[in-house]
Amino acid sequence: MSHRHKHLHRKQKVRSLRKKKKVYQLRSFWIVFAAVLLGALAIYFGIFFSAIQIQHIAIAGNQKVATGDIEKLAEKNSTTKVLGLSSQSIFLENPIALKNDILHAFPQIGDVSVQKKYPSSLFIMVQERQPFSVFCDSLTNCFSIDNTGVIFEQVQAPVGVMTISTEPAQLEVFAGEDVVNKNVMDAIGKIQTSLKQNFNIDVAQALVSDPLIITTSEKWKIYFDLTQDIDLQITKLNTLLKNQISTSDRKTLQYIYLQYQDRAYYK
Fold first, then answer.
1. pTM surpassing 0.90?
2. In the chain, which stretches have pLDDT less than 50?
3. Each residue of 178-200: pLDDT tens digit?
4. 50-128, what's its fold?
5. How far apart are CA 222 and CA 248, in angstroms?
6. What whole-number distance in Å separates Cα of residue 214 and Cα of residue 237?
7. Cα dihedral angle (85, 88, 94, 98), rounded to 10 degrees?
8. Domain map (residue ranges) of the chain
9. Does residue 127 contact residue 157 with C-beta atoms inside 8 Å?
């Protein structure tokens, strides 16, 4: 055997005779172990540490919806099961999910914001829907309706309040439904305001159909085309009532047609 081969063989024997280190004796093992331990502790304290559990829920802006009902829903939403244990950690709270749950549970609420107040509080600001009018379905169930077209609480059949319905008549409806398009609600609002401010005429009923039919408190009807410019049609209506149809004439008036672009008709 050559001298070179003898030397290599001798080095390999020395290496094989050296005692191998255990895994726990390696420096890299302890670095990884420390990192995992610190991470586990951080997760544990971030989930279960008492100081960051949600302890106070402040609610503002609500009048009709009970504070206790919103608070109970928020507490339920904030409770999470982790490894079989309950946690109300503020770090696990999802404001968007809580907002959606509140809007779904309470049709009277039109908007809500949820803010985390570290280390252990939630602030919920509620904006309740305001009644614009009353909507009645084909079964004569009536609901308050806001200016976006959403019904939100059942009411008795109104007296002296504008009612809104649709043609064809809708079957049974439920609180929280969007029953009238917002653009149509905007049009009805403009018509109502113009009649009241300019001529002291109230709107008794709005039938959302093709065309939109407005029945006034004086018992005559106005026909609007919802596919055309509502502002222009209101301008034509104002011109008629100012210049051609007197207050005494309105006592026998039956209808005004505004759907035609070139002119208006009345009887």
1. no
2. 6, 8, 14, 17
3. 999 999 999 999 999 999 999 99
4. Ubiquitin-like (UB roll) (3.10.20)
5. 17
6. 12
7. 110
8. 50-128, 133-266
9. no
